[in-house]
From TrEMBL:
Span of domain Methyltransferase: 60-153
Organism: Streptomyces iakyrus
GO molecular function, one term: methyltransferase activity
EC number, UniProt record: 2.1.-.-
Name listed for the protein in its UniProt record: Class I SAM-dependent methyltransferase
Amino acid sequence: MFSPEGPSLRELAVQALSSVERGYDLLAPKFDHTPFRTPDAVLDAVGSLLRRTGPYDAGLDLCCGTGAGVGVLAQVCRERVTGVDFSAGMLAVAQKQAAPTGPPVSWVRADARALPFASVFDLVVSFGAFGHFLPRELPGLFAQVRSVLRPGGRFAFPLVAPPRPGSPGYWTLLGFDTVMRVRNALWRPPFVMYYRAFRLGDVRRGLTEAGFRVELHALPEFGRRPDGSPRVRLVMARLPG
Protein backbone atom coordinates (compact mmCIF):
# COMPACT_ATOMS: atom_id res chain seq x y z
CA MET A 1 0.00 0.00 0.00
CA PHE A 2 2.92 2.35 0.62
CA SER A 3 5.81 3.14 -1.70
CA PRO A 4 9.40 3.04 -0.38
CA GLU A 5 9.26 6.84 -0.14
CA GLY A 6 6.23 6.66 2.16
CA PRO A 7 6.13 6.80 5.97
CA SER A 8 7.52 4.01 8.11
CA LEU A 9 5.35 1.99 10.47
CA ARG A 10 6.78 3.93 13.39
CA GLU A 11 5.99 7.26 11.73
CA LEU A 12 2.42 6.15 11.06
CA ALA A 13 2.02 5.09 14.68
CA VAL A 14 3.21 8.48 15.94
CA GLN A 15 0.86 10.25 13.55
CA ALA A 16 -2.09 8.06 14.55
CA LEU A 17 -1.56 8.92 18.21
CA SER A 18 -1.56 12.66 17.46
CA SER A 19 -4.44 15.02 16.79
CA VAL A 20 -5.72 15.17 13.21
CA GLU A 21 -3.94 18.49 12.63
CA ARG A 22 -0.64 17.41 14.17
CA GLY A 23 -0.82 14.02 12.49
CA TYR A 24 -1.13 15.57 9.05
CA ASP A 25 1.63 18.07 9.80
CA LEU A 26 3.90 15.09 10.44
CA LEU A 27 2.63 13.10 7.45
CA ALA A 28 2.76 15.99 4.97
CA PRO A 29 6.29 15.46 3.53
CA LYS A 30 5.44 11.86 2.59
CA PHE A 31 1.68 12.15 2.10
CA ASP A 32 1.81 11.85 -1.70
CA HIS A 33 3.47 8.45 -1.32
CA THR A 34 0.59 6.97 0.69
CA PRO A 35 -2.79 5.50 -0.38
CA PHE A 36 -4.49 8.39 1.44
CA ARG A 37 -3.75 10.71 -1.47
CA THR A 38 -6.53 10.74 -4.08
CA PRO A 39 -5.36 8.71 -7.13
CA ASP A 40 -4.60 10.60 -10.32
CA ALA A 41 -7.22 8.53 -12.15
CA VAL A 42 -9.95 9.98 -9.92
CA LEU A 43 -8.59 13.52 -10.25
CA ASP A 44 -8.46 13.19 -14.04
CA ALA A 45 -12.01 11.82 -14.26
CA VAL A 46 -13.40 14.62 -12.10
CA GLY A 47 -11.47 17.23 -14.08
CA SER A 48 -12.83 15.86 -17.34
CA LEU A 49 -16.42 16.15 -16.14
CA LEU A 50 -15.91 19.61 -14.66
CA ARG A 51 -14.46 20.86 -17.93
CA ARG A 52 -17.75 19.93 -19.58
CA THR A 53 -19.78 21.88 -17.01
CA GLY A 54 -17.48 24.93 -16.84
CA PRO A 55 -15.58 27.09 -17.22
CA TYR A 56 -15.66 28.70 -13.79
CA ASP A 57 -14.14 31.91 -12.52
CA ALA A 58 -13.01 31.27 -8.92
CA GLY A 59 -12.53 27.85 -7.33
CA LEU A 60 -11.87 26.56 -3.80
CA ASP A 61 -10.32 23.22 -2.86
CA LEU A 62 -11.77 22.36 0.56
CA CYS A 63 -9.29 20.48 2.80
CA CYS A 64 -6.75 20.71 0.00
CA GLY A 65 -3.92 18.73 1.62
CA THR A 66 -0.86 18.81 -0.62
CA GLY A 67 -2.83 20.45 -3.43
CA ALA A 68 -3.84 17.64 -5.77
CA GLY A 69 -7.36 19.07 -6.13
CA VAL A 70 -5.98 22.54 -6.77
CA GLY A 71 -4.46 21.12 -9.93
CA VAL A 72 -7.94 20.08 -11.07
CA LEU A 73 -9.32 23.56 -10.35
CA ALA A 74 -6.47 25.18 -12.27
CA GLN A 75 -7.76 23.41 -15.39
CA VAL A 76 -11.34 24.66 -15.10
CA CYS A 77 -11.08 28.08 -13.40
CA ARG A 78 -10.15 31.23 -15.31
CA GLU A 79 -9.47 33.84 -12.63
CA ARG A 80 -8.14 32.36 -9.39
CA VAL A 81 -7.90 29.23 -7.26
CA THR A 82 -7.66 28.87 -3.49
CA GLY A 83 -6.63 25.90 -1.37
CA VAL A 84 -7.72 25.78 2.27
CA ASP A 85 -6.54 23.33 4.92
CA PHE A 86 -5.97 23.41 8.66
CA SER A 87 -2.60 21.63 8.47
CA ALA A 88 0.30 24.04 8.09
CA GLY A 89 2.52 21.13 7.05
CA MET A 90 0.21 20.16 4.19
CA LEU A 91 -0.03 23.74 2.96
CA ALA A 92 3.76 24.10 3.01
CA VAL A 93 4.14 21.06 0.76
CA ALA A 94 1.30 22.25 -1.49
CA GLN A 95 2.98 25.62 -2.01
CA LYS A 96 6.24 23.97 -3.05
CA GLN A 97 4.47 21.72 -5.56
CA ALA A 98 2.12 24.28 -7.08
CA ALA A 99 2.29 24.52 -10.87
CA PRO A 100 3.88 27.76 -12.10
CA THR A 101 1.28 28.24 -14.85
CA GLY A 102 -2.47 28.77 -14.80
CA PRO A 103 -4.60 31.13 -12.70
CA PRO A 104 -3.17 32.64 -9.50
CA VAL A 105 -3.28 30.24 -6.54
CA SER A 106 -3.53 31.27 -2.89
CA TRP A 107 -3.23 29.08 0.19
CA VAL A 108 -5.20 29.68 3.38
CA ARG A 109 -4.87 27.92 6.71
CA ALA A 110 -8.35 27.55 8.21
CA ASP A 111 -10.84 25.03 9.55
CA ALA A 112 -13.45 23.93 7.00
CA ARG A 113 -16.08 24.29 9.72
CA ALA A 114 -15.37 28.04 9.94
CA LEU A 115 -14.34 29.25 6.50
CA PRO A 116 -12.93 32.81 6.38
CA PHE A 117 -14.41 33.75 2.99
CA ALA A 118 -17.35 35.69 1.65
CA SER A 119 -19.55 34.38 -1.20
CA VAL A 120 -16.83 34.66 -3.84
CA PHE A 121 -16.45 31.18 -5.36
CA ASP A 122 -18.19 29.58 -8.32
CA LEU A 123 -16.92 26.07 -7.62
CA VAL A 124 -15.88 24.22 -4.46
CA VAL A 125 -14.31 20.76 -4.70
CA SER A 126 -13.05 18.32 -2.11
CA PHE A 127 -11.18 15.03 -2.40
CA GLY A 128 -11.00 12.37 0.29
CA ALA A 129 -11.52 14.63 3.30
CA PHE A 130 -14.99 13.79 4.55
CA GLY A 131 -13.91 10.92 6.77
CA HIS A 132 -12.49 13.56 9.12
CA PHE A 133 -15.95 14.92 9.91
CA LEU A 134 -18.41 13.23 12.22
CA PRO A 135 -21.95 12.78 10.83
CA ARG A 136 -23.30 15.44 13.19
CA GLU A 137 -20.82 17.94 11.71
CA LEU A 138 -21.99 17.58 8.11
CA PRO A 139 -24.90 20.07 8.28
CA GLY A 140 -22.53 22.76 9.53
CA LEU A 141 -19.92 21.84 6.92
CA PHE A 142 -22.45 22.03 4.07
CA ALA A 143 -23.71 25.36 5.41
CA GLN A 144 -20.13 26.67 5.33
CA VAL A 145 -19.72 25.60 1.72
CA ARG A 146 -22.98 27.29 0.81
CA SER A 147 -21.84 30.50 2.50
CA VAL A 148 -18.75 30.84 0.27
CA LEU A 149 -20.50 30.11 -3.04
CA ARG A 150 -22.04 32.67 -5.33
CA PRO A 151 -25.64 32.12 -6.50
CA GLY A 152 -25.58 29.26 -8.97
CA GLY A 153 -22.27 28.00 -7.59
CA ARG A 154 -21.46 24.30 -7.41
CA PHE A 155 -20.00 21.96 -4.82
CA ALA A 156 -18.48 18.83 -6.39
CA PHE A 157 -16.74 15.78 -4.97
CA PRO A 158 -16.24 12.12 -5.94
CA LEU A 159 -17.87 9.40 -3.89
CA VAL A 160 -16.84 5.75 -4.15
CA ALA A 161 -19.58 3.13 -3.78
CA PRO A 162 -19.27 1.17 -0.53
CA PRO A 163 -17.91 -2.38 -0.82
CA ARG A 164 -20.42 -5.22 -0.87
CA PRO A 165 -21.23 -6.53 2.64
CA GLY A 166 -19.09 -9.55 3.40
CA SER A 167 -16.43 -8.71 0.80
CA PRO A 168 -12.76 -8.26 1.77
CA GLY A 169 -13.10 -4.51 1.25
CA TYR A 170 -16.10 -4.38 3.55
CA TRP A 171 -14.26 -6.14 6.38
CA THR A 172 -11.16 -4.00 5.84
CA LEU A 173 -13.09 -0.74 6.22
CA LEU A 174 -15.12 -2.09 9.12
CA GLY A 175 -11.95 -3.19 10.86
CA PHE A 176 -10.28 0.18 10.30
CA ASP A 177 -13.25 2.11 11.67
CA THR A 178 -13.47 -0.21 14.67
CA VAL A 179 -9.79 0.30 15.48
CA MET A 180 -10.22 4.06 15.22
CA ARG A 181 -13.22 4.03 17.56
CA VAL A 182 -11.32 1.98 20.13
CA ARG A 183 -8.31 4.28 19.78
CA ASN A 184 -10.45 7.37 20.32
CA ALA A 185 -12.16 5.81 23.32
CA LEU A 186 -8.81 5.17 24.99
CA TRP A 187 -6.55 7.99 23.78
CA ARG A 188 -6.63 11.77 23.61
CA PRO A 189 -6.61 13.85 21.51
CA PRO A 190 -8.99 12.03 19.16
CA PHE A 191 -8.09 11.29 15.56
CA VAL A 192 -11.26 11.45 13.50
CA MET A 193 -10.95 9.32 10.38
CA TYR A 194 -13.85 7.01 9.60
CA TYR A 195 -14.27 5.53 6.14
CA ARG A 196 -17.84 4.27 6.58
CA ALA A 197 -19.50 7.38 8.04
CA PHE A 198 -20.00 9.34 4.80
CA ARG A 199 -23.00 7.63 3.14
CA LEU A 200 -24.68 8.75 -0.06
CA GLY A 201 -28.19 8.88 1.40
CA ASP A 202 -27.10 11.04 4.32
CA VAL A 203 -25.05 13.24 2.02
CA ARG A 204 -27.92 13.89 -0.39
CA ARG A 205 -30.28 14.66 2.45
CA GLY A 206 -27.82 17.00 4.14
CA LEU A 207 -27.03 18.89 0.94
CA THR A 208 -30.72 19.28 0.12
CA GLU A 209 -31.45 20.61 3.59
CA ALA A 210 -28.59 23.10 3.13
CA GLY A 211 -30.32 24.48 0.03
CA PHE A 212 -28.48 22.63 -2.74
CA ARG A 213 -29.96 20.86 -5.74
CA VAL A 214 -28.11 17.55 -5.97
CA GLU A 215 -27.12 15.75 -9.15
CA LEU A 216 -25.21 12.47 -9.40
CA HIS A 217 -22.90 11.81 -12.33
CA ALA A 218 -21.36 8.39 -12.93
CA LEU A 219 -17.65 8.44 -13.66
CA PRO A 220 -17.55 5.84 -16.45
CA GLU A 221 -13.78 5.41 -16.21
CA PHE A 222 -14.34 3.18 -13.15
CA GLY A 223 -17.09 0.95 -14.52
CA ARG A 224 -20.09 -0.43 -12.71
CA ARG A 225 -20.76 -2.91 -9.94
CA PRO A 226 -22.56 -6.23 -10.56
CA ASP A 227 -25.88 -4.58 -9.67
CA GLY A 228 -25.34 -1.95 -12.38
CA SER A 229 -24.64 0.99 -10.09
CA PRO A 230 -21.54 3.14 -10.71
CA ARG A 231 -18.40 2.30 -8.79
CA VAL A 232 -17.59 6.00 -8.50
CA ARG A 233 -19.94 8.98 -8.74
CA LEU A 234 -19.38 12.70 -8.83
CA VAL A 235 -21.79 14.43 -6.48
CA MET A 236 -22.65 17.82 -7.97
CA ALA A 237 -24.58 20.10 -5.61
CA ARG A 238 -25.74 23.39 -7.09
CA LEU A 239 -27.16 26.51 -5.51
CA PRO A 240 -30.18 28.18 -7.13
CA GLY A 241 -29.67 31.49 -8.81
